[in-house]
TrEMBL record:
This is Uncharacterized protein. The lineage of its organism: Bacteria, Bacillati, Actinomycetota, Actinomycetes, Streptosporangiales. It comes from Bailinhaonella thermotolerans. Keywords: Membrane, Transmembrane, Transmembrane helix. The chain crosses the membrane at residues 25-45, 90-111, 151-171, 177-196, 237-257.
Length: 267
């Protein structure tokens, strides 16, 4: 005779602690929490200051302020014209695209894992019980908005094109071609941003995720294999791009404030 559910439960070990793991499992979520919090604070402060985002003459524009289409922007920084009036204090100059970039990062599959574990402790680590008694997944507001990730990916492609234009534009000044350390930093940041954007799970699915026969679509299959290799590094690229964005903005800010001279290689 089969045992009843209540009998099976009585046979199970009653564990009073949160987990039996003996390693320092809390280091990973704590490090993620500290890293993301520090980056968010830095980005919030820098975007709200509306200062030291543009280096005239070298044409360095911080990615945090691009595209700069407000009358508050320096004239040379308005690469795409002036669409908006002057902004009041504390409004980021790149507000036009920042919500889409934030949406892309927040709905990213890796970042979901990162902040679910480090901020919501849901769960904080494998084999560690979460403190929440109820779980509804991503079926209700606001987490149901995670399904918009593909559309934020399309917006991120446009923003990557804008950042690419900014990086290329900086190579040309009044005296023609020019290059300094800032150009290399801008270029490196753009390359990493493209790698992170194209490594997105949505990009991999769009490329060939719905094909039933790869042999009938050799070009899409080849693209899918390239994207899959990038996708395997999606977590690393997510963190690298946070670093390159902060580095690029900080370098441009220091040069714009005359704290640090730009190392020039040509012109």
């Amino acid at each position: 005779m089969a045992a009843t559910t209540s009998e099976v439960r009585k046979q199970r070990a009653q564990i009073g602690v949160r987990t039996l793991r003996g390693d320092r499992w809390w280091l990973a979520p704590l490090g993620t929490f500290a890293g993301l919090t520090a980056w968010l604070l830095y980005a919030l402060i820098r975007t709200a200051t509306q200062s030291n985002y543009w280096v005239d003459g070298y044409n360095y524009l911080s990615p945090f302020s691009s595209p700069c289409v407000s009358a508050s922007c320096a004239e040379g920084a308005r690469h795409f014209g002036t669409w908006l009036p002057e902004f009041p204090p504390l409004i980021p100059l790149g507000i036009l695209v920042l919500p889409f970039l934030l949406g892309f990062r927040l709905t990213c599959y890796y970042y979901r894992k990162a902040y679910y574990r480090s901020f919501w402790l849901s769960p904080p680590a494998c084999a560690v019980a979460e403190p929440h008694s109820k779980y509804t997944g991503e079926t209700r507001f606001p987490l149901i908005a995670q399904n918009l990730h593909r559309y934020f990916f399309y917006a991120a492609l446009v923003v990557s094109l804008i950042n690419t234009y900014d990086a290329v534009y900086a190579f040309f000044g009044k005296n023609g071609f020019q290059m300094g350390l800032g150009n290399l930093i801008l270029l490196g940041n753009v390359i990493m941003l493209w790698a992170y954007t194209l490594s997105c799970h949505s990009c991999r699915h769009i490329t060939a995720g719905r094909l039933n026969h790869f042999s009938r679509h050799p070009l899409r299959y080849r693209m899918w294999t390239w994207i899959s290799k990038l996708n395997a590094k999606h977590m690393q690229l997510a963190w690298i791009t946070l670093g390159t964005l902060a580095l690029t903005d900080a370098y441009i800010g220091l040069v714009a404030a005359d704290v640090l001279p730009d190392l020039r290689f040509f012109n």
